[in-house]
Design goal:
mainly alpha, 97 residues
């Protein structure tokens, strides 16, 4: 039997059925495993240095990518400005000639 509360669904266990003891220990074990992994990743200085190096390399690559995009945008803007000036000159020459 399922009981629905808002977006959540709560399962009701009928009678005296309980969860097996191994199922009750799994969440605690999972939390402990995650905590140990977190501690191992953050306490080892070599791992921290590698993470920082990877982060800085990704940042440099992203900056290079953004710089390239900015240069392309500037070139496109310059071309548009030249085209606008040329168009203005042509229109003025047509009007006044």
């Amino acid at each position: 039997m399922a009981l629905e509360i808002g977006p959540f669904v709560v399962l009701a266990i009928a009678g005296s059925q309980t969860l097996p003891s191994s199922s009750r220990q799994d969440p605690a074990t999972t939390i402990q495993k995650h905590w140990k992994g977190h501690q191992a990743r953050n306490s080892d200085s070599k791992i921290r240095e590698l993470k920082d190096e990877v982060r800085s390399l990704r940042t440099e690559e992203h900056i290079k990518h953004l710089t390239k995009e900015l240069q392309q945008a500037k070139q496109a803007l310059d071309q548009e400005r030249k085209l606008r000036r040329y168009t203005t000159v042509v229109i003025i020459s047509i009007i006044y000639d």
